[in-house]
Amino acid sequence: MDHGAMQSTPWNMNLDYAIDWSIALGVPVVLLTVRHLFLSISRAIEDRRQGGQRHALLATVDSTEVDTDELEVDIPTRLSKSSAATARWSYSRIENWITNKASATLYLGSVVHLVAGATLFALIFLSILAVLLTSNVNLKLNSNRAGYLGLSCIPFLFAFTGKNSIITLMTGISHHRINQAHRFLGLSLFVLISVHMGCMMKSWWPWKALLAQQLSTPKVRYGLATYTTLCLLVVTAAWPVRRYAYEAFVVSHSLFLVFLVLVGLHTPYAMRFTAAGIFFYLINVLTGWCVKSKMALAQATVFQDRLTRLRMDRPVAHAPGQHIYVCIPSMSLIQWHPFTISSSDQSSFTVHARAVGGFTKKMCRWPENTQRRVILAGPYGESVQVGRSLDIQKVVFVAAGSGLGYIVPILMDFLQARRQSKASCGHVEIVWCVRDPDEVQWFQEELEMALDAAQGYLDTTEKEKEEAGLIAPDGPETQLSLTIHYTRLSFEDQESLVVPTPPHQYEGSSTSTSGTATMTTEAKKALSNVPFAGDDRVEWVQSRLDVGRYVRDQIEEIDGDRAVDIVGCGPPLMLAQLHNVVAANESLTGCRVNLHTERFYM
């Protein structure tokens, strides 16, 4: 077999190893595609089955005219026990258990944190690559092996590019995770090409005449130009450049076109790989056209120069937990930043942006009562729904700072489902960590809506009518507790406030940590000017939240045949602690933990 060899590109033994590497990279994509299709079908079947059970149960309760609050046995428990043994060893349960175990994270700083599953996959692929690179070859004599393996990375490097990757559509994996694979392949390409060039130069270096002769050939010159372009791409894609000079990163990444041209001039064998890469890139562009860009007018509200709330004047069809990319041409023509859609109505939607970088800090200087034109793309991301399964005993939300913007739409969607009898779980706990209580006004409107919705109201009009005696609250009441942890007291209108030391320790709550204290009457008076002052539905705790202890206590409270939904959003350290405690405490013989997390992407 000539494998499609032509006169200009006769078959080379190194191509066999390049094909093997391509197969190694392609097999996971095929398996993940099959998994995505299987899970989509199984979830549709499970949703229909549980919907039938729920309707049958409601019909039974209505026919017997028995109030569910008077039943001694919890309805979801009764239903879940009949299939607990089967569900415990189902594919979805085993995959969920493996996913939680693989999410254990070694936190080494805000930039470096190693996730067990991702690290394991990286080591497996690096081992395969090392075997292919060194098998039956002396790299000093045949450094082309590394070059061919690098060429075979190009199609996959482009297939894993962009927010609208065809791989995301096929596998259901978020574009953030796909981008991690893109970076891995980019670094692999850089290392392989470095080995290829380094071995070549080392073999020529002792003979200056040979070195000069080789450097004068067009093939080597194009090769050096290709490597220089690749070095620029790698350096400008480093985290500090993306973090502090995003425009430089975007502009420099357009050099990929120069790289493709130069590598094609360097060797004709590259054409089949670059053609495949361009094909996948065009597919991604076509996929992106399905996600139409939108124009809107935005008005900003700035809180303490630390957070900006943008309200767009047009609706966007989205699911809870999804985010949208925003470009503000008056600030930057090339910067697109993702923001979670924190709330929406029939005519507008809202996002919250915390000031963490140059772009978001500029947003905090947005003039009041000023509208600016923005460009929107999306929405993107996975939809997160909680409390739907009949065996869910509790829903737990953990957020830090502006991370509550990810929590709020998921919470409101759950409360809406409760009103429509699509969610059986009636116990929700929210823990929000802020630096000072003044930050609560960032999401004051959204939290007030959620607290009212938990009592059966979905808007303020309904609540006003009920208070006037015109109507009764509609929908089931949800046991919702909101605990706010803060570490200091500082307000815009006051120089300082000191909370008196309480006479007794804070006990009896799952949010307690060692040394945590409840507030005295004097402390409550000091907090009289902050949102929710005097609201018994909100509890204030002056301490840092012990995430590990809190989540462990929540898991231990769940019955063995039940489940708990946990949703978290915050900085990498908090999410690492969240993943680690779930990985350490979940077992196949205990309760099921459905963990959904989102970190601050910068």
UniProtKB/TrEMBL annotation:
<keyword id="KW-0472">Membrane</keyword>
<dbReference type="InterPro" id="IPR013130">
    <property type="entry name" value="Fe3_Rdtase_TM_dom"/>
</dbReference>
<dbReference type="InterPro" id="IPR013121">
    <property type="entry name" value="Fe_red_NAD-bd_6"/>
</dbReference>
<keyword id="KW-0812">Transmembrane</keyword>
<dbReference type="InterPro" id="IPR017938">
    <property type="entry name" value="Riboflavin_synthase-like_b-brl"/>
</dbReference>
<keyword id="KW-1133">Transmembrane helix</keyword>
<dbReference type="Pfam" id="PF01794">
    <property type="entry name" value="Ferric_reduct"/>
</dbReference>
<keyword id="KW-0560">Oxidoreductase</keyword>
<feature type="transmembrane region" description="Helical">
    <location>
        <begin position="248"/>
        <end position="267"/>
    </location>
</feature>
<dbReference type="InterPro" id="IPR039261">
    <property type="entry name" value="FNR_nucleotide-bd"/>
</dbReference>
<dbReference type="Pfam" id="PF08030">
    <property type="entry name" value="NAD_binding_6"/>
</dbReference>
<dbReference type="InterPro" id="IPR017927">
    <property type="entry name" value="FAD-bd_FR_type"/>
</dbReference>
<dbReference type="GO" id="GO:0006879">
    <property type="term" value="P:intracellular iron ion homeostasis"/>
</dbReference>
<feature type="transmembrane region" description="Helical">
    <location>
        <begin position="184"/>
        <end position="204"/>
    </location>
</feature>
<keyword id="KW-1003">Cell membrane</keyword>
<feature type="transmembrane region" description="Helical">
    <location>
        <begin position="273"/>
        <end position="291"/>
    </location>
</feature>
<keyword id="KW-0406">Ion transport</keyword>
<feature type="transmembrane region" description="Helical">
    <location>
        <begin position="224"/>
        <end position="241"/>
    </location>
</feature>
<protein>
    <recommendedName>
        <fullName>ferric-chelate reductase (NADPH)</fullName>
        <ecNumber>1.16.1.9</ecNumber>
    </recommendedName>
</protein>
<dbReference type="InterPro" id="IPR051410">
    <property type="entry name" value="Ferric/Cupric_Reductase"/>
</dbReference>
<dbReference type="GO" id="GO:0006826">
    <property type="term" value="P:iron ion transport"/>
</dbReference>
<dbReference type="GO" id="GO:0052851">
    <property type="term" value="F:ferric-chelate reductase (NADPH) activity"/>
</dbReference>
<keyword id="KW-0813">Transport</keyword>
<comment type="similarity">
    <text>Belongs to the ferric reductase (FRE) family.</text>
</comment>
<dbReference type="GO" id="GO:0005886">
    <property type="term" value="C:plasma membrane"/>
</dbReference>
<feature type="transmembrane region" description="Helical">
    <location>
        <begin position="145"/>
        <end position="163"/>
    </location>
</feature>
<feature type="transmembrane region" description="Helical">
    <location>
        <begin position="106"/>
        <end position="133"/>
    </location>
</feature>
<feature type="transmembrane region" description="Helical">
    <location>
        <begin position="395"/>
        <end position="415"/>
    </location>
</feature>
<dbReference type="InterPro" id="IPR013112">
    <property type="entry name" value="FAD-bd_8"/>
</dbReference>
<dbReference type="GO" id="GO:0015677">
    <property type="term" value="P:copper ion import"/>
</dbReference>
<feature type="transmembrane region" description="Helical">
    <location>
        <begin position="18"/>
        <end position="39"/>
    </location>
</feature>
<dbReference type="Pfam" id="PF08022">
    <property type="entry name" value="FAD_binding_8"/>
</dbReference>
<keyword id="KW-0249">Electron transport</keyword>
<feature type="domain" description="FAD-binding FR-type">
    <location>
        <begin position="284"/>
        <end position="386"/>
    </location>
</feature>
